[in-house]
Amino acid sequence: MKLKNLTLPLLAAPCCLANANAAPEGKPTKPNVVFIYADDIGIGDFSCYGATALNTPNIDKAANNGVRFTNAHSAAATSTPSRYAMLTGEYAWRKAGTGIADGDAAMIIRPDRYTMADLFKDAGFTTGVIGKWHLGLGAEHGKQDWNKHLSPNTQDIGFDYSYIMAATGDRVPCVFVKNGLVENLDPNDPIEVSYRQNFPGEPTGKNNPELLTMHPSHGHDNSIVNGISRIGFMKGGKSALWQDNKIAKTLTSQAISFIEGNKDKPFFLYFATQDAHVPRVPSEDFAGKSGLGPRGDCILEFDWSVGQVMETLERLGLADNTLIIISSDNGPVIDDGYHDGSVEALGEHTPWSVYRGGKYSHYEAGTRVPCIWYWPTQTKGTVSDALLCQIDWFATFAEMLGQSMPEGAAPDSQPLFNTWMGKKKTGRDWLVLQNLQNNLSITDGNWKYIPASGGPAFNKHVNIEIGNSKDPQIYNLKKDEGEKVNLADKEEKRMKKMSEQLEKIIDGRRGLPLY
Ligand code: NG6
Ligand code: CA
User: Fold this and answer.
1) Tens digit of pLDDT for each residue in 431-483?
2) 431-507 CATH pick, 3.30.390.50, 3.30.1120.10, 1.10.10.10, 2.40.50.90
3) Which end of the chain has the lower number of beta carbons within 10 A, N or C?
4) Which residues form ligand 1's pocket by a CB distance below 6 Å?
């Protein structure tokens, strides 16, 4: 049975939802929500978080008038599990098949799952997703016919409108999918996709490096699209291929159109940009502008996208009652598979701020991401160091909307609206996080415990400490934010307690008061 069929009576019926702008007497009402998700952008990458080599004025404006979080986490150190957890309110490690998804993965969130988009829809909002998806499409892995309507798709899990990249910029198929259909496809040039083998006669990065404009540093040597070799093989669909230097502009104009088209009714927009994931190909307006190579240029372009959204909301008179959230799906990485000059140009810039690790990592820089909540009439330019996680947005939105959820929905999500609004100082008591190998850690208050596990301590390709170790680790984050001193020898009792706590959480929600 569909979970969503179990919906309890609404606390606020959709009929009672006024247009976001029609708030009586300036009282807070249900705001529009625009959630702008960056990809692989770190907590040290914006000027409002202390970066001096980059200037991000639009994001800074949101921070200066919103709430800037210093201890907010994505649920995982890579994209697919972070996004899964955020949209379902369930830790990704509870569900098999939520690791980094191939471009031909089947839909990971199945239609019977009650999602954050369903919640907004039930509350009377129009819902949209624009940008990087990376949570699979279609019924069966590798069995999609990309020339037909893909089903199930994002519209089956609560999004009224979708304009998405199936997976990532570095994975085939390199096309946009609009409401389940590949955009601009010529039926005489059908698309074929395989993650197992090449199509006869098609060039690859491995065999034809002379055709490349950007060379892989590791992996990424399969099919060549726009002079860039990708992960996976594809053939055909020439008219539908995206142009890499136009992705940010295309997605931003999609976001603007969505807002314009829904200006008279409440809306929820999940705007998932591809900046600054590889391959990094900024538009000509930003290429070379940061002095930090393409990664820095893409961060500037991300800031521009944020500015475009803000300007649109202001122009339409919606800004005062729109909650803008800016965050990232995991921590930073500099060389994630292409020689694009970003390593050489990095200089003194520290995308990971003072934290250890980066994307893929157990350490703080894996998941401690930039995060800003900005609702002009309700937030005031504060900084919060509460322990928080994107997994909590689901229950927090339910709280904000006064909307009940079906039983069993968003099981790991905690409603913390006042904390996200900067009105309360405390957040979660504890938080479980996952690294690339889906190994878990637990943070409780000031302490972080990383159980012993298999898997590499360091990945030399990306030059990041992944943090796996055959020995347990425990850090006092209050005294040692850089996780430099492993106190395992001194904190045996605490580790035992935290280990038991983690086991209980893994074991299910039995006997453990989660909220
Ligand atoms: C890795 C890719 C990396 C990136 C990552 C997913 C290789 C060698 N590396 O497997 O480039 O695509 O997957 O990134 O293929 S994420 O931000 O979408 O999780
Ligand atoms: Ca990512």
Assistant:
1) 999 999 999 999 999 999 999 999 999 999 999 999 999 999 999 999 999 99
2) 3.30.1120.10
3) N
4) 39-40, 78-79, 100, 134, 168, 170, 218-220, 231, 277-278, 330, 336-337
